[in-house]
């Protein structure tokens, strides 16, 4: 394999992240990621016709049975029902405990297939093969797996770290423009919470990233994976600092659920909701005198430069969004917990956040 970089995510069960061109055709690397005789490739109906044959060809060898499970694409399909269908496919395959699920897709496929792997026979290997920028920089790393419920995002899930992650950067060539931008929202998140210098780098390289310049995109993926790997290694089960990765997500998840997970085709996707959510979280931070207005405005300007939305979509009711937030996974007996912004590159977890301040932020957020 040429031109690939490898990072390790440490912890109780360390694994490697490989990032580089052509990895999905690397039969040797793929073979090293497998243990038993059964492989289930879980993918979606946009990715399958573009990339699944190449992967299955590279996997083919005597004694290995490879089956495919193709999900309908979209956040609104990240459901318990679709999760159950993946388990049925594992049963039809006769998957034993040493079987491997290969999650070939964006974060929806990765989260759902990872959750199925976590549950089949109480846990089999999943190898994450991310095909979106968002999945490469975020969802394929760290072991959070889940499905959405009508009541809220990712409410049923498990921590199930992958056995390996293979991010084949050439696969991003077929990614729609809107999805590329969505991935950049999570990239901006790392700069916002961990590294002011990375925010500057993103501003300087916005054009190259949007033009899919290989060097710029690969650097963004590697730097993002390093930030995530470091925090996940220290706090794999989100007992503490890992929650910083949720910057913008309390608002984002409420928006996504309230929009019915974009089932009608007109809602924000996850990355877009995170962009709006980060601006709202920064604004809430200024109202609570933690962050400066100029910094919030610069964050908003960077997101807009990357073609991301920064205002609440019309028609969403602040009271309904606030009610959604009470079921956020960070909330506890003291009330709402938010990741608030203190300065570029710095954030903190704040408990018992005033609902009144959140409501005022939401009311101002539509403009
Ligand atoms: N587990 C985690 O830590 C974590 C982190 C961030 C996000 N997430 C989850 O990830 C999900 C969002 O992931 P996403 O943004 O990748 O969305 P997605 O999986 O819905 O993919 C976006 C769209 O791009 C298509 N697509 C994917 N790869 C393609 C390719 N190479 N070429 C052409 N089309 C392609 C998909 O079919 C889909 O239509 C959300 O459910 C979010 O909650 C999880
Ligand atoms: O890995 C994490 O931890 C994150 O919070 C990453 C987020 O970008 C991601 O959207 C995650 O799925 C949110 O997790 P949740 O626990 O709030 O459902
Ligand atoms: Zn996210």
UniProtKB/TrEMBL annotation:
It holds the Pfam family DHQ_synthase. NAD(+) binds at residues 107-111, 131-132, 144, 153. Its cofactor is Zn(2+); Co(2+); NAD(+). Residues 183-331 form the 3-dehydroquinate synthase C-terminal domain. The keyword DNA repair does not apply. Its main location: cytoplasm. GO terms for biological process: amino acid biosynthetic process; aromatic amino acid family biosynthetic process; chorismate biosynthetic process. Binds 1 divalent metal cation per subunit. Can use either Co(2+) or Zn(2+). Transmembrane segments: none annotated. Residues 70-181 form the 3-dehydroquinate synthase N-terminal domain. Zn(2+) binds at residues 186, 249, 270. Keywords: Amino-acid biosynthesis, Aromatic amino acid biosynthesis, Cobalt, Cytoplasm, Lyase, Metal-binding, NAD, Nucleotide-binding, Zinc. It is found in: Cytoplasm. CDD domains: DHQS. Its EC number is 4.2.3.4. The keyword Nuclease does not apply. Pathway: Metabolic intermediate biosynthesis; chorismate biosynthesis; chorismate from D-erythrose 4-phosphate and phosphoenolpyruvate: step 2/7. InterPro entries: Dehydroquinate_synthase, DHQ_synth_AroB, DHQ_synth_fam, DHQS/DOIS_N, DHQS_C. It catalyses: 7-phospho-2-dehydro-3-deoxy-D-arabino-heptonate = 3-dehydroquinate + phosphate. One of its GO terms (molecular function) is metal ion binding. One of its GO terms (cellular component) is cytoplasm. It is an enzyme of class 4 (lyase). Catalyzes the conversion of 3-deoxy-D-arabino-heptulosonate 7-phosphate (DAHP) to dehydroquinate (DHQ). Belongs to the sugar phosphate cyclases superfamily. Dehydroquinate synthase family. This is 3-dehydroquinate synthase. It comes from Lysobacter defluvii IMMIB APB-9 = DSM 18482. The lineage of its organism: Bacteria, Pseudomonadati, Pseudomonadota, Gammaproteobacteria, Lysobacterales.
